[in-house]
């Protein structure tokens, strides 16, 4: 992973090299704290050890319980699903991957009607084993399989903690299962059993993903000028402090669109604390050049744009044409056009004084993805250290969970009482 901060200098808001030099001392201190947390396997910091502590053999052994399926369906929500979806959507393969991560009844029914349930592995993921949305969806999936004459116990992989409903279910039915690692919040769990089981079921190289993560670990150092992850984390923090309160992440590869979703959860849930944080926005190059770019370039000066691209990609030639207005395209390629669009957007933002940061990986493959995902996690942790926020907690999320559970009769939670206090100004 490589990071170029050049287009974040002397912009509005923006940085200077002097700003980065001053910040570098704080980065060194933050790195010491992060390294100590990793060494002690502290809650949250343990996630940055996953490239070394995750056990690919255990993952392979669990998925070997199944013949290569036609499809795999992950039933989870948030960090229990987005990491797996990021990898499966980025890496092409013969096994189709789907995610059931919401409780929209129309979507759930349409998905289950289309799936070849007799040749689908259900990958149900919940650290607590009590997540309402995940368990509700799993019960629906289980019934659909039974209605289709499929023995769900022969098609289900469970990833969960040491206790809870899912652990009891796995033990009762002797289901293949994987442990959720201790001390790792869900949004930081992509390089663990939580994110890697689907990749293994699809036949991807899990060890290469972890090797990429180790590349990212090796690049961490006490200076932002020596660590791409810390350079990104420090720059985004400093820009937010100066007013860039929206971070629009814009990959120039269709296969990385879900990566932007994963990033949005990581950034929002980790850093949105105590009136601080930077709102992640999701865009896709070149598609959103024709829509969102108008706002980024000409709207309020409160944004950073993160442009992400692979250097190498397969080429699709653009045929020659005798149309005068399109002759310039003939002999080029779709990849060449996409790169030109990337550089044009970058230049367009710079010309409008909008800060933008370039993030590049070699190609979209297992090793590069492992490094990119680890790098963004490390960047997020560094940002949290610099901002002095509690990076690994999510109290606002937990409040909402309690309110919903109370409304459903799952316990007596004061948060549920707030529903009755809703203000109304109705226009019918």
TrEMBL record:
Domain SIS positions: 62-209
Location of the active site: 269 (proton donor), 290, 401
Membrane-traversing stretches: none
Any one GO BP annotation for this protein: glycolytic process
Its EC number(s): 5.3.1.9
PROSITE patterns reported for this sequence: P_GLUCOSE_ISOMERASE_1, P_GLUCOSE_ISOMERASE_3, SIS
Keyword GTP-binding part of the UniProt annotation: no
Superkingdom to which the source organism belongs: Archaea
Catalytic reactions of this protein: alpha-D-glucose 6-phosphate = beta-D-fructose 6-phosphate
Keywords, sorted A to Z: Cytoplasm, Gluconeogenesis, Glycolysis, Isomerase
SUPFAM superfamilies: SIS domain (SSF53697)
EC top class, as a word: isomerase
A Gene Ontology molecular function term of the record: monosaccharide binding
CDD domains: SIS_PGI_1, SIS_PGI_2
InterPro entries: G6P_Isomerase, Phosphoglucose_isomerase_CS, SIS_dom, SIS_dom_sf, SIS_PGI_1, SIS_PGI_2
Subcellular location: Cytoplasm
Keyword Isomerase listed: yes
GO cellular component: cytosol
Pathway in which this enzyme or protein is active: Carbohydrate degradation; glycolysis; D-glyceraldehyde 3-phosphate and glycerone phosphate from D-glucose: step 2/4; Carbohydrate biosynthesis; gluconeogenesis
Annotated family: Belongs to the GPI family.
HAMAP family per UniProt: G6P_isomerase
Function: Catalyzes the reversible isomerization of glucose-6-phosphate to fructose-6-phosphate.
The protein's name: Probable glucose-6-phosphate isomerase
């Amino acid at each position: 992973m490589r990071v170029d901060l050049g287009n974040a200098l002397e912009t509005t808001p923006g940085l200077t090299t002097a700003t980065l030099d001053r910040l570098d001392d704080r980065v060194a201190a933050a790195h010491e704290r992060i390294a100590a947390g990793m060494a002690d396997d502290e809650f949250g910091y343990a996630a940055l050890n996953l490239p070394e502590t995750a056990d690919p053999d255990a993952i392979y052994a669990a998925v070997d319980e199944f013949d290569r399926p036609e499809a795999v369906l992950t039933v989870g929500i948030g960090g229990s699903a987005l990491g797996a979806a990021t990898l499966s959507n980025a890496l092409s393969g013969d096994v189709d991957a789907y995610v059931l991560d919401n409780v929209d009844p129309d979507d759930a029914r349409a998905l289950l009607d289309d799936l070849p349930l007799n040749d689908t592995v259900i990958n149900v993921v919940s650290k607590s084993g009590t997540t309402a949305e995940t368990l509700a969806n799993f019960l629906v999936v289980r019934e659909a399989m039974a209605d289709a004459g499929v023995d769900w116990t022969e098609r289900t992989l469970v990833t969960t903690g040491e206790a809870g409903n899912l652990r009891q279910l796995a033990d009762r039915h002797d289901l293949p299962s994987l442990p959720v690692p201790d001390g790792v919040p869900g949004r930081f769990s992509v390089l663990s059993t939580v994110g890697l089981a689907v990749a293994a079921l699809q036949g991807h190289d899990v060890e290469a993903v972890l090797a990429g993560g180790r590349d990212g670990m090796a690049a961490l150092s006490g200076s932002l000028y020596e660590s791409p992850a810390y350079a990104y984390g420090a720059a985004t923090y400093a820009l937010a402090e100066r007013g860039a309160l929206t971070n629009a992440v814009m990959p120039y590869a269709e296969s990385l669109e879900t990566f932007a979703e994963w990033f949005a959860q990581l950034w929002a849930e980790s850093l949105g604390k105590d009136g601080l944080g930077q709102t992640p926005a999701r865009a896709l190059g070149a598609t959103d050049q024709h829509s969102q770019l108008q706002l980024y370039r000409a709207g309020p000066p409160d944004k950073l744009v993160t442009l992400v691209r692979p250097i190498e990609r397969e080429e699709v030639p653009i045929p020659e044409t005798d149309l005068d207005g399109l002759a310039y395209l003939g002999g080029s390629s779709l990849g060449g056009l996409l790169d030109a669009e990337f550089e044009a957007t970058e230049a367009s933002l710079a010309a409008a004084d909008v800060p933008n940061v370039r993030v590049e990986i070699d190609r979209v493959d297992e090793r590069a993805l492992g490094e990119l995902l680890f790098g963004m996690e490390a960047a997020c942790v560094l940002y949290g250290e610099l901002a002095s926020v509690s990076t690994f907690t999510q109290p606002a999320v937990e409040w909402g969970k309690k309110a919903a559970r109370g409304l459903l009769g799952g316990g007596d939670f004061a948060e549920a009482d707030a529903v009755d206090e809703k203000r109304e100004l109705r226009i019918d």
